Amino acid sequence: xxxxxxxxxxxxxxxxxxxxxxxxxxxxxxxxxxxxxxxxxxxxxxxxxxxxxxxxxxxxxxxxxxxxxxxxxxxxxxxxxxxxxxxxxxxxxxxxxxxxxxxxxxxxxxxxxxxxxxxxxxxxxxxxxxxxxxxxxxxxxxxxxxxxxxxxxxxxxxxxxxxxxxxxxxxxxxxxxxxxxxxxxxxxxxxxxxxxxxxxxxxxxxxxxxxxx
Length: 213
What we know:
By secondary structure, the protein is mainly alpha-helical. The chain contains 9 helices and no strands. The longest helix is centred in the middle third of the chain and has 28 residues, at 125-152.
């Protein structure tokens, strides 16, 4: 399946006139087509994107402030959608968030194009900064909030540094999806990995119940 057949990215506030999902879809698919044709990110001008998508440059600028912002939406369209959190417990919400990272890692390994997209994005400081601001930072805030609620309802010890705990939970999944090469055993990202990571860490992070004599 082509990345152009993947789901459209989550809604973004309209800029200028009301958004047209069909137009935005055409633009995003146009960028994906150019990437599939091997055009490097550095050579993706707004004019070239508009020509490929069959729209005017002004149409693109009404919806995105520039190429960097547009490319972030393209990456989000290629990623698994943000999960709906079950809200049943801190543990279940953390598993849902890690599962999205695992699925993205599997997709990146099976899609040469998606792998190249991430590689190009990280080599462009402006695009990486835009992706971090609109995707990574909000996700991290959500993760910290989940941990904070866990402290409040007694699922997590109150003396813990939540920023550090978040890194401890997300870190193992990032190690397997980013640092390990795709040629390693597929079981590195097997189903159930998210649950194993969360349960292993929470085993040592839950409040210790005082024993009664």
